[in-house]
């Protein structure tokens, strides 16, 4: 009986941990299987943006719902300060091409009800006087923010455990099991776990796991890298980004800066079994940061890390049931911007399993959008 549960969740990132918590709120105590440590993947390897701006219209409603209904009260609900700050998001532009990108994004978001405006270079520097004179404008979303990814993930983990969820680390899932066409469990290297429903939320590794029951979600892995600096005096609160996504980041509650970006070494790291960051990567990311914030040139980087993002074929996640295998659910392909919507994704998976109905319309995020049109 210890290897059986109504629900087994594969993956202990923010989606897996939040799904476990919300299932427990419905009275369902799941088993969560993790190959390594809790939150080992992208949930502990991102810059913490809780962003609605510059999202695909298909996932924007989930991002807006999370910002309005989940993030503001999450520290109190989980009993831990997740360092959530709703202080806005500036996406910066240095060229007319950058401004065109941001203007199109702003118009798209405004049409869906998100408050987002365009600022001139002067208006941008009024909000943040540390920004370089090279910046000619920006987009501004006042309801965006940031939080601490690791504390958020561990907060859901701790609360779910208190409510009866079982987390088992060191369990590498090798396949899913079906009986009479329905999902019936999960096979690891050491054990077999029986389940009526299974959630696969393992980042890029979800693809191989789902392949074992004939389901393929087209996605690839791409390396993203982040760094954290020494503590600095308070400078600004808002989350930062740029039109071309060269870098993104914020100043933390403790004064250090967390910046992320693509250093361009992904092809090299594709040959590595483990993600890693070298002395080359932070310098590349920092050169990009300094074009926007030259006064940070003397600041010391104290740590850097790298992680894979599970980039789907169309750049938005798959969240919801897999119709061909009743009882199977997937949450993957978040494409490097899953942190802000992960708690809402976990909540909706729990709602579907417990009551058969989600709060939001998830049809645009279903797996079947990749199937041939009839």
From TrEMBL:
Residues covered by the FAD dependent oxidoreductase domain: 7-352
Any idea which GO molecular function terms this record carries?
oxidoreductase activity
Pfam families, per the entry: DAO (PF01266)
> Which UniProt keywords are given for this protein, alphabetically ordered?
Oxidoreductase
Look up keyword Oxidoreductase and say if it applies: yes
Signal peptide annotation: none
Stated name of the protein: FAD dependent oxidoreductase
């Amino acid at each position: 009986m210890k290897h059986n549960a109504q629900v087994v969740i594969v993956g202990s990132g923010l989606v897996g941990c939040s799904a476990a918590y919300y299932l427990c709120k419905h009275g369902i105590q799941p088993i969560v299987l993790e190959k390594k440590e809790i939150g080992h993947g992208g949930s502990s390897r991102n810059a913490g943006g809780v962003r609605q701006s510059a999202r695909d219209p298909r996932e924007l409603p989930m991002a807006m719902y999370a910002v309005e209904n989940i993030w503001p009260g999450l520290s109190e609900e989980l009993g831990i300060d997740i360092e959530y700050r709703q202080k806005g998001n500036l996406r910066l532009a240095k060229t007319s091409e950058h401004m065109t990108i941001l203007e199109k994004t702003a118009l798209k978001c405004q049409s869906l009800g998100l408050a987002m405006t365009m600022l001139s270079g002067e208006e941008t520097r009024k909000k943040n006087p540390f920004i370089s004179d090279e910046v000619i404008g920006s987009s501004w979303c006042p309801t965006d923010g940031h939080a601490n990814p690791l504390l958020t993930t561990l907060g859901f983990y701790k609360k779910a455990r208190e409510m009866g969820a079982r987390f088992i680390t060191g369990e590498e899932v090798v396949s899913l099991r079906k009986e009479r066409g329905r999902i019936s469990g999960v096979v690891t290297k050491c054990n077999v776990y029986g389940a009526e429903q299974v959630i696969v939320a393992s980042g890029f590794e979800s693809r191989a796991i789902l392949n074992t029951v004939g389901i393929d979600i087209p996605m690839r892995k791409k390396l993203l890298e982040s760094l954290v600096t020494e503590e600095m005096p308070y400078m600004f609160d808002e989350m930062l980004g740029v039109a071309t996504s060269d870098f993104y980041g914020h100043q933390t509650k403790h004064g250090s800066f967390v910046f992320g970006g693509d250093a361009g070494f992904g092809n090299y790291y594709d040959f590595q079994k483990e993600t890693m960051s070298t002395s080359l990567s932070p310098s590349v990311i920092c050169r990009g940061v300094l074009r926007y914030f030259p006064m940070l040139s003397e600041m010391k980087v104290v740590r850097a890390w790298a992680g894979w993002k599970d980039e789907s074929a169309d750049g938005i996640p798959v969240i919801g049931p897999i119709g061909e295998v009743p009882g199977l659910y997937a949450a993957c392909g978040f494409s490097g911007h899953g942190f802000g919507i992960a708690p809402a994704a976990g909540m909706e998976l729990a709602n579907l399993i417990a009551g058969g109905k989600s709060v939001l319309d998830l049809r645009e995020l279903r797996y079947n959008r990749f199937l041939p049109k009839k």
